[in-house]
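Sequence decides. Consider this:

===
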Amino acid sequence: MMYVGLVFACFSIALACWLIQKMVAYAWSRYRRSVTEHTQTSLSELFVFIDTTHLWPALCCVAVAMGLSVWLLCQSLLAASLLGALTLILPRAILTAALSRRLKLFDTQWPDALISIAGALRSGASLGLALKNFADDAPTPMSQELSLVLREHRMGLPLNQALAELNRRMPTESVELVTALFSVGNASGGSMADILERLSNNLRARQHITGKIGMLTAQGKMQAWVMGALPLAILGALSQIDPASVELMFFSQTGQLLLGAVLVLECIGIYWLQCILAIEI
C-alpha cells in the first residue's frame, strides 16, 4: 500500500510539474508575441519602420547579461532576477512614454495649424488643398499625420474616414473636435474659417490653463521624486558610515527581502502621488 501511495505521489508531482511547465511556456510565448506586436505597432505610430523579428532574442540576451552581471557583483539572485525582468519590461515602457510625448506635442501644434488652415480657406482654397499646403511646411508630428491623412484620401479613402483614422491614432479631445469639424465642413461645404479660428483660440486657452496647472503642481511632483530618492540617499550615506551593516542588506536573505519590499512600496507611493497630482481638464 505504501508503494501505491508513493507511485501516486510521484505521478501527482510529475503532473503538477508538467502543468506548470505548460503554463509558463504559454505565458512566455504570449508575452513574447505581445512585446513584438506592441513594439511593431508603436514604432509604426512613431513613423519608425524597422524589422522587429530579432527584437525578442536580443532582449533575452541583454536580460541574461544584465542578470549575470548583477549576480557576479553582489551574489544576489533576487536583484539579478529583478533586473532581468526589468530589462524585458523596459522597452514597452520607453515606447509608451515616447508615444505619450508625441501625443502631447501633436496637441500643442493644433492652434497654429488651425490658424494657417483658416487663412488658406479664406483665400479660396478647398479643405484638402489647405491641409496639403500646411502639411508640406508643418513640423513633426503634425506634418506626418496630415500627410498620412491626405495619402489615404488620394488612395480612395473618403476624407471623413481618413480623419476618423487620425482620431483613432491620436485619441485626444482636441483631435476629436478638429476631425469632427473637418468632417462636418467637408460634408456641408460651408465656410469654416471663422469656426476654425474660434476653435484655435479655445484650444490655445485650454493649453494655457493646462500649463498653469502643471506649473502649480510641479512642486508636488518634485516632492514625490524627492521622497522616492530619499531612501536611496540614506542607504548611500549608511554605506559610508557603517558598511558592514549595509552589506547585510545585500548579501543576506532577510535584507534582500526588505530591499524588495522597500522598492515595491516606493513604486506604489510614487504612483499614488502621480495619480493625485494628475488633474484632468
